[in-house]
Amino acid sequence: MIKDRIAALVLVGVGVFAWIEAQRYGPMSRLFPQVVAVALVVLSLFLFASSFSARSRRAAAERQAESSEGERPDVRGVLLSLLVIVAWTLLLEVLGVWTSSVIAFVALVIILRSTERAAVVWRSVALGVVLVTGFVLLFRVVLRVPLPEGVLW
Amino acid sequence: MGSYSRFRRAGRLACAMLVVVGMLVGAGALFARGAGEDAEYPSRAVTYVIPFDAGGQSDITAQYQREGLERALGVDVVIRHQAGGGGALAWSALARGSTDGYTISGNNIPHIIIQPLVRENAGYETEDLRPVYLFQTTPIGLAVAANSPFDTLDELIEHARANPGQITVSGSGTHTGHHLAIMQLQYLSGTQFTYIPATGAAPSVANFLGGHTQAILGNSDDLVQHRDAMKILAIGTTERFHALPDVPTFIELGYDFTAGIDRGVTVARDTPEEVVRRLEAAFDAVSRDPDFIARMEALGFEQHQIGADEFAAHIERKTREITTVLRELGEL
Amino acid sequence: MPSLLEALLTVGHPVNLMLVALGVGAGIVVGALPGLTATMAIALLVPFTFGMNVVHALVLLGGIYCGAIYGGSYAAILINTPGTPAAIATTFDGFALAKKGHAYRAIVVATIASAIGGLVGVAFLLFLAPPLARASLQFGPPEFFWLTVFGLTIIATISPRSTVKGLIGGALGLLIGTIGIAPVDGRVRYAFRTIALQNGITLIPALIGLFCLPEILDMIASRFHRETAIPYRPQRHMLRRVWRLVARKPWLLLRSSVIGTVIGIIPGAGANIAGMVSYNEAVRVSRKPHEFGEGSLEGITASEAANNAGVGGSLVPLLTLGIPGAPPAAVLLGALLLKGMRPGAELFTVHASVTYTFMFSLVVANIVLLPLGILLGKGASKVVTGLPTTVLAPLVFFLSVIGAFAIQNNVGDVYVMLAMGLVGFLGRRVGFQPGPIVLGLILGAMCEQGLVQSMLMGRAAGTPVAIFFTRPISIVLIALTVLSALWPVLARVRQRHTRDEAAAHIHPIVEEKRDD
User: Fold this and answer.
1) Residue A78 has what pLDDT?
2) Residue B133 pLDDT class (50, 70, 90 cuts)
3) With contact defined as beta carbons under 8 Å apart, do B62 and B30 qualify?
4) B11 in contact with chain C, both atoms CB, cutoff 8 A
């Protein structure tokens, strides 16, 4: 509910910004984005307003109950994985697709493991390296898609 | 605890090993490339970037050229597509990319000239790219439907002059060859048409054939293909076009301009002179192959054999011409 | 018709049969990988056909086209990411089924629907191509505009939890779609002088980002079977049961296939939209609309039958007029021209035997697709459900990265994928689904193009407003749009009505129960 309100305000901002930015464009290229921007603002304001209604409060409470039933989500895992994924993307061109993917793969396996049995973890790493190598070869050699090479491979 | 630390050790070991392996592979790659630079160009595969979608005219031509290029250069030629921004994506990448000549790109006039003129930041300037070879033109012609009341260009222009903006003309894209052609025709005849840009040649033809526009600026191959459904009023070549000998040129009819899409190949500006010459020679060999010429002409193209220097002069001339038209029409 | 007979004999040649099967198999694999679309699949394989003769090349490429559009359903079902944009609507129910452990059943349904849809599409191509192609030309800018507006009403169907959020998502998608070069005056919009945004947000990276990344992160958050694979349980008589289930819905199959074919024929619309429109209609007609989105086999059938029917449809204007009905058909056009075959009347006279061989090979491809798809689907669902998260999550992300890159050989697209992934992930926390955003993105460019082109046309003709409302096909589309937009209200009325009726009877309502 509070989330709805934040999202609605952010989207109102996006819409207003889009409208103002489009002022600079010619009549033909301004029309469509401005119409859409107005729609976005109106709909977001509606969402904002309706988040105060009793019905939406009830729905939010229900959803809360629903989500708390299950297991606690792995917030640490998600945040760390996100970090790895962002780093992976940034390093793609620097290190090359193979190297960066293998490193990220290992990092994710370590973050996501729930067992301490090394053999299992090793198996994941080995499988990952084989899959990455296989796909990189498939793309580079067979399909001739020039994946980023970077300094390494 | 024991198994956990064993896991940690294993993880660390894995990382260390990967780093070592990675460095070895990387060093090998660097060494291989370093050795390659000393050898005579080309010593490894050349990437031929097509700045448009697969299946388009640039792509088809490149697919035909590939074998001949491989023979002439003695290395693999890999065609890859990098469509986007009307070609700007590929050209801006080329302008900022390496100058070793292993990445070459298709060069389409007028796109490559107009984009830097009209966009705040197209990502490249026309001068950032070194022209290598000009091998082909797709002439652009103006046509009306077969049942149209207009039989000649003069009748069409007469009507447009009396009723400014009433004649709709279909074409492919904005700031493209078709768009430039309509601008030049308007500028030289003092008339006003309504140009309706489509997202490509095929949708433009569809708009025209469906009767949604009254006229079309079409590529020569489309005109040849659909000639039964239309009256072709004029074509943008200097002399009569081989596939449509009955169609007069714009110049013949008193409008002194040519309309077409010139296709060539280009590299980054600071590419070494001998590399440019090597590529020029390879493209020259391919472009003089009679079999290649015959196939291309059958598809409705006009073939040229224009080397780097003359090509550069051509771009300069075109740039002046285009700048004048755009300025006169208030597009700049 | 000697050429027909000759074509039949050529298709039956073992080499051609093998090439069809090979093409279908390769297409399925490429289509199943997120980011590698049918267009890419054909483009990547055209160079391989360079040295082949015309028949072999076309037969192979046709197989790839069919296979790839179908293969997109694997990724949709198994990891909630459409392998090709055509499979977007397949994710809605496919993944829900997979989560319940019925991935293989979903794939079998998709296979049967795809094969039947594909055959219907080819039948239209074989028997009605010339009149249909001529009719497709009646679709001008105003019709495109209204088609996209009609398309946007699908949002109500695919966001049952909150229509407002669906609409907001759709508007956001439309707005994202305006980034880049404007259709009429060529002005670069919302690029802030950056080169990356000048080219606009490409659909495929956005699609992967919005669907795939949130799914990976959710997989991680839910600690769903980390290292231990769930044992794969084969179900007995599954094939026969699913077949019976699908066969019980001939109208659904036929309707979806016809929708797919028609939308495939309209140049520029294509399978992406076909699947969603067909899904929308299926929900509307179904007696159990609440099941959609929760793992309805009808939903998968509607989407898959339509997108594969679109294959045949997209070839109708291609072969008769040289105007591709969809992006993969555009690449096929290039392949045809490379072989010196010019679409149009010539294809049906001079090259008739080759052309009919190609069409017949599509029939074969859709038949081959059944056993091949069921076999590969079994393998794929076994492997993917068997992979632990520690491998699956990084692997899916890895495939997303190379898929986003490969579409234009552009690293910028990988960043777009990542950015859209974050939008999708945060959006999901607030209850925004990726479906409406992607729908907006797909329809946005077409919608604006149709709008401004129509305005130019209207202004030239002196009827700036009337042009939108006076053309016959436009009127039909407007009526459909109004009906579609009002449908939720009508459905509620109908529901209340039937409930009252049921209450009037004393008999208890017996729910139809199936134990499949």
Assistant:
1) 87
2) very high
3) no
4) no
Q: What is the residue type of C200?
A: G
Backbone angles phi, psi at A145, to 5 degrees: -90, 120
Confidence class of residue C225 from pLDDT cuts 50, 70 and 90? low
The SS3 assignment for C339 reads: coil
What are the chain C neighbours of A148 within 8 Å (beta carbons)?
405, 411
Is C180 touching B (CB cutoff 8 A)?
Answer: yes
d(CA B103, CA B96): 11
- Determine contact: A106 vs chain B, CB below 8 A: yes
Residue of A103, A105, A110 for testing the chain B interface, max B β-carbons within 10 Å: A110
If we measure between CA atoms, which residue out of C32, C156, C140 comes closest to residue C86?
A: C32
Q: Which of residues 26-55 of B touch A (CB under 8 A)?
A: 26, 29-30, 47
pLDDT digits (tens, 9 = 90+) for C34-55: 878 899 889 888 888 888 889 9
Facing residue for B78 by CB, picked from A102, A117, A144: A144
Q: Tokens in use for B20? A: 């070592």
Q: DSSP letters of B107-135?
A: EEETHHHHHHHHSS--SS-GGGEEEEEEE
Q: What domains lie within chain B, and their CATH numbers?
A: 46-135+270-328 (3.40.190.150), 138-235 (3.40.190.10)
Radius of gyration of chain B (CA): 24
CB pairs under 8 A between A and B: 52
Look up residue B78 and give its two tokens: 């890999």
Closest Cα in chain C, distance from residue B253 (Å): 26
Q: For residues C405 and A135, give the distance between their C-alpha atoms in angstroms, rounded to a whole number.
A: 14
- State the complex-level ipTM: 0.90
CB contact under 8 A, A89 and C223: no
A82 touching C, CB under 8 A? yes
**Residue range C92-105, pLDDT digits in tens:** 999 888 888 888 88
Segment C447-474 mean pLDDT: 92
